[in-house]
Amino acid sequence: MTAITTPITPITPTIGIIGSGAIGSAVAKVLARHGIQATLANSRGPDSLKDLVRELGPSIKAGTREEAAAQDIVFVAVNWGKLPTALAGLPDFGGRIVIDTNNPIEAPLFKPAELNGRLSSEVVSDLVPGARVVKAFNHLAAALLATDPADQGGKRVLFYSGDDAAAKATVAALIGRLGFSGIDLGALNVGARLAQFPGGPLPILNLVHYA
Questions:
Q1: CATH assignment of the domain containing 62
Q2: What is the pLDDT of residues 35-54, one digit of tens each?
Q3: Which of 2, 38, 103, 174 is the most exposed place for a label (fewest CB within 10 A)?
Q4: Are 195 and 204 contacting, i.e. CB atoms less than 8 angstroms apart?
Q5: Residue 90 located in a structural domain
Q6: Cα–Cα distance for residue pair 14/154, rounded to 1 Å
Q7: pTM score
């Protein structure tokens, strides 16, 4: 008797984006280009995002901050000074992935924030209890991040780092699905320092990987 096996279909992680500014919108645009569903939220509520999600297309929907934060992968893309308020009161993340796209600069003067010797990702990690934090999508300017990553026959590079190998593998898979070439910078205390703006040597570098 021959056993009948059913192929296992990989489960696609759900995605939320907290923040609809330059980086949050750029991430949403990249996801929409590939038809990947995501919930986009900001501090002003879903109604304020109607025009943006209509422009982005059907795979991106507006939601509340709580709805975005409840997804499997949560992009946090909020102006540095507003991060504590944007993340306050959310439930424990329970091992879900938070992608820290933030840079410690204070708009509108772009003055470096006072971190008291800490890395910005350490500060973000304290604001998302229970999350597996991966630093990524922060080293490119928003306008460049939103463009097609195929460049001159290669793939635009995105750096990522984190302390959880499985979380990094999930983010790396997403980076590849979006058409970028991901480069693992190691643990947060190494990679986040390299990619942090200001201070790190890697931000703003538009690197292209040729296979």
A1: 3.40.50.720
A2: 999 999 999 999 999 999 99
A3: 2
A4: no
A5: yes
A6: 28
A7: 0.92
